[in-house]
Structure prediction request, 341 residues.
Amino acid sequence: MHCALAPGAGLDGLNRVMIQNVAGSLEGLRPIEGQPTRIGLAKWSRREITLATTNAVYGEHNPFKDSTVKQAFCAIFNRSEQLPGTKYKIPLADIAHHEIGGTLAIIVNTAPATFWLLFYIFSHPEVLEDCRREVGKIIRDSTEEGHPKRTLDITGTKRNYPTLTSTYQEVLRQRTLGTEVRQVMRDTILDDTYLLKKGATVIIPSLVMHTDPAVWGPDALEFNHKRFTSKAGSSSSSQQQKEAVKRPSAKAYRVYGGGSTLCPGPHFATTEILATVVMFIMRYDLSPVEGRWVAPRTEKTNISAVVMEPDMDVQVEVTPKQGFADGRWEFCAGGGFKDGV
Prediction:
């Protein structure tokens, strides 16, 4: 799994399918007869991210194309001849257990992460402005048969969109609650104070580390979308400083776990989430139906989730971004892939 999800041709292939699916989903948000499209932001994120992810992972036999999750799981088990483990004579029940774990890994956290990133960006006008300005520099404008055509390169998100990437990292810092578990291999004294006995179990909640003022400063509980950016220097000719993504401390930033339990899919997940958000913010505006943005509570988050899940959905109206209502969009990914809508 680690090899399949590592940067390279295999991951590029997954990203191409994912981007194609998301681009089509966004096209479906166009207003009908000039009326804004209303969606539940969390529900939309869950539905579209689930379909895009599973289409990329399972391919043409994706069981999640079925109308319900129950039907989808039944379908994948009934199509046992299409599962890779069958040729190794692995019992179907074991394959089923593995698929459940794999499904949880690829879709449970990506959808709420997409929801929170969209929520924070659109509920903070200065963040939306910064991210759009950054992405706007990458868009290539042209005409096709007399109509506007806009081409946007989705690849290299971290390199091309440092402010957006920092915003994403800050959202995860505040909205993840994963817990790492370690067994003490030998007697260890921490900070000359705490004795951890051999054989004991240590539980490390990431939320504690992610909100510790000793690590993140006095604004640890505040949302700072530029927390993970740093000045990368300036050009002698322009004297303008460029922002680059500052690598979070591996010891304090445990969104994807660490060590032997490091999540194998951060590259795919990050590209998927950032690509979805980039395409969304450059095509549409969002406004809350209730008139103001209110962050939902997260007390009902499933125990298997790492990213907090909203207890209630946020109803929003989707309208085309001013000046971008007409024309054709073309999204590019690695290897020359293009998807036009």
Remarks:
- The two ends are 32 Å apart (CA to CA).
- The CA atoms of residues 184 and 200 lie 5 Å apart.
- Confidence is low (pLDDT under 50) at residues 232-241, 335-339.
- The first helix runs from residue 9 to 27.
